[in-house]
Amino acid sequence: MYVEPLLSVFPWAQFHTTKGAIKLHVGLNHSGHLPEFVTVTEGKIGDVTVGRTINFPKGSIVAIDRGYNDYVWYNQLTEKGIFFVTRLKTNAKTRVIKRHAVLKSKGLTRDQTIKFTGARTAKKCPAQLRRIGYRDPITGKHYIFLTNHFKLATKTIADIYKARWDVELFFKWIKQNLKIKSFIGTSKNAVMTQIWVALCMYLLLAFIKFQSKLKKNMQQILRLLQLNLFEKRDLMALLRGDPIHDKQFDINQMALL
Q1: Which of 32, 115, 158, 215 has the largest CB neighbor count within 10 A?
Q2: Residue bearing the bigger pLDDT, 152 or 43
Q3: Strand 83-87 to strand 61-63: parallel, antiparallel, or no bridges (unpaired)?
C-alpha cells in the first residue's frame, strides 16, 4: 500500500522530484485475515525486495502479483518446499513439457507443465513450473497463472490468486476506518507511530471480535467503541447491547449531586 505525502513536508520519504512516499508491506494470513508480517519502507523500495526477507513456513501457499516477479526467488521458494501462485509475464519465453486436460465449462483454458527457455531466465529458474489459463466468466478477462503446485485442481489455483484481493480489502479497511491517509505529525517517527498504532488497533478489534463470538463485524465494533469511548461499561455487555442497570444509573446521578 502506498501513501504519498508532499516531499516538502515529508523530506525523509523521498520518492519522486516533488512527491514523497512510504509503502506498507503486509503478509496477510488467509485463514484468519490477520497480518502476520508487516513492515514500512520508503516508497522506492521494491515489493519483491521485502518479499525475499519473509521466512514462510514450509508448505505455505503464497499468492503474489506481478510486482513480485523474480525468477531466482521462484526457484528458491520451490527448493524450500514453499508454493506460490502469481501471474505470468506476457513476454516470458517458455517451452511446454506436458499438457493436461481442463474443464472448459469452468472457464479454464489451459493447464501445462513448462520450463523457461530465455537465456538468463532458464539459469535463474531451472525448475519445471505450471501454467494455467483462466477466463473470468463475469468480466471475460483472460488470466495466465504461474505456480509450482502441481497437485491442486486448476480452478483452485485460480481461486487462490483471486483471494489475493483480500490484502487490498485490508488496506482499504484500515484507510477508511483507522485514519492513516492523513498524518498528525510530519517526522518519520510520528508517521511510523501512527501507522503502527493503527495496525495494533486492527489486531485488538480482531481479538475482541473473536472473543465476543458475536455476529458484529469489526466496523460495527469500532463504531460502538467510538460512541462509548468515555463510558465506564463492561465491554462484553456493551457489545451484547445489554441495558445499563438502573441502580448503577442512580449511583452515578447521586455522585453528581
Answers
A1: 158
A2: 152
A3: parallel
Residues 108 and 155: beta-carbon distance below 8 Å: yes
pLDDT at 257 over 50: no
- Give Cα separations from 53 to 12, 21, 43, 176, 196 (angstroms): 23, 21, 17, 29, 20
Cα–Cα dist 133/143, whole Å: 6
Other CB atoms within a 10 A radius of the CB of residue 124 amount to: 15
**DSSP for 76-128?**
HHHHTT-EEEEEPPTT--EEEEEE----GGGTEEEEEEEEE-SHHHHHH--S-
The set of cell numbers assigned to 154 is 486448476
φ, ψ dihedrals at 50, nearest 5°: -75, -40
225 phi and psi, to 5 degrees? -70, -40
CA distances from 204 to 47, 127, 201 (A): 27, 42, 5
Counted residue by residue, the chain has a size of: 257
Using the CB atoms, write b or e for 139-158: b if 16+ within 10 Å. eeeebebbbbeeebebeebb
Q: Whole-angstrom Cα distance, residue 92 to residue 114?
A: 11
Mean per-residue pLDDT, 105-120: 93
| Residue 128 CA: distances (Å) to CA of 56, 77, 120, 159 | 21, 13, 15, 22
More confident residue, 211 or 7: 211
Strands, DSSP E only, in 4-55?
22-29, 34-42
Q: Report CA 69 to chain centroid distance, whole Å.
A: 17
The whole-angstrom separation of Cα 243 and Cα 225 is 16
Task: Please state the φ and ψ torsions of residue 248, each to the nearest 5 degrees.
Answer: -65, -35
Rounded Cα distance between 213 and 206, Å, is 11
Task: Give the chain's mean pLDDT.
Answer: 85
